[in-house]
Amino acid sequence: MGTRAGSASGSPRRAALAGACAPRLVATGGLLHDAEQRRAVRKTHEEEGAPMAMLSPQEVLAKVRRFPTRSYEPGDTVMSQTTAAGQLLFLCEGALDVTLEDVFIARVTEPGAVFGDIAFLLDQPHTAEVSAVQPSSFHLIEDPEAFLEAEPKVAIYVAQVLARRLNAVNHLLVEARRRIAEAPQRRGVLTDTLDRIGQALQIRVPR
User: Fold this and answer.
1) Are residues 34 and 92 in the same domain?
2) Are residues 43 and 90 in the same domain?
3) What is the residue-wise DSSP string for 127-148?
4) Phi-psi region of 162 (alpha: psi -120 to 50; beta: other; left: phi over 0)
5) Are residues 89 and 16 in the same domain?
6) Kind plus residue range of the DSSP H or E element containing 153
7) How far, in Å, CA of 17 to CA of 44, rounded?
8) Residue 129: inside a domain, yes or no?
9) Which CATH number do you get for residue 64?
10) Which residues of 141-177 are buried (b: 16+ CB within 10 A; e: fewer)?
11) What does 23-63 look like in DSSP terms, one character per residue?
């Protein structure tokens, strides 16, 4: 019985990778050794080229340097909850407090931190209040959609910032559930974990 040909609609890259990953038979009827299969897969990845490198915060700031700078003094409101500006701000320097319904969430000081990303991506008002606690400056992107289309690596950077925050919070929530289940009588356990969740919600930048 003849073998069935691969689908004509499959991409050459996908077909090559599938061929490298699939177990292959040797003359004795046995499977290739795992090491040989791994070498075949590695060769296929090398032929396809390295994945897109992630930008550092410094590289992102270099890309947004051409955009206008906006400065704030301590006590100034940078973003107001329930308002919708449709902009992205990249922190150059300073320190900002993020609050939600008058509850402190995090203090952000990392250059390259992104603000306005959730509101822009979800097309909704800002979900938190952002206030300067030190003299702070940002590069302002008035048209984030056009900018991110022109700079896909910055779009990946923004996605990575969001993914890091979500991943950190997921792990802390699991830990909170486990610790409360193990010692429900200990009031301080929940408070400690909630503090750590607040730290994880900082606008983290990829390293």
Assistant:
1) no
2) no
3) SSEEEESS-EEEEEES-HHHHH
4) alpha
5) no
6) helix 152-182
7) 6
8) yes
9) 2.60.120.10
10) beebeebbeebeebebbbeebeebbeebeeebeeebe
11) --B-TTSPBPPHHHHHHHHHHHHHHH-PPPPPPPHHHHHHH
Q: Judge whether 117 lies within some domain.
A: yes
Is 4 inside a domain boundary? no
pLDDT by residue for the chain (207 residues), tens only, comes to 444 444 444 444 334 434 434 433 333 333 344 445 445 545 544 444 445 568 999 999 999 999 999 999 999 999 998 888 889 999 999 999 999 888 898 899 999 999 999 999 988 999 899 999 999 999 999 999 999 999 999 999 999 989 988 888 888 877 877 777 776 666 566 767 666 776 666 655 555
At residue 154's C-alpha, the angle toward residues 12 and 49, to 5°, is 30
Q: Would you say 153 and 64 are in contact if contact means Cβ atoms under 8 Å apart?
A: no
Six token digits for residue 186: 């200990």
Q: Beta strand 69-72 with 136-141: parallel, antiparallel or unpaired?
A: antiparallel
CA-to-CA dists, residue 64 to 84, 87, 103, 167, 180, angstroms? 21, 13, 31, 27, 44
Q: Which domain holds residue 28?
A: 12-48
Phi, psi of 79 (to 5 degrees): -140, 140
* Shared-domain flag, residues 156 and 69: yes
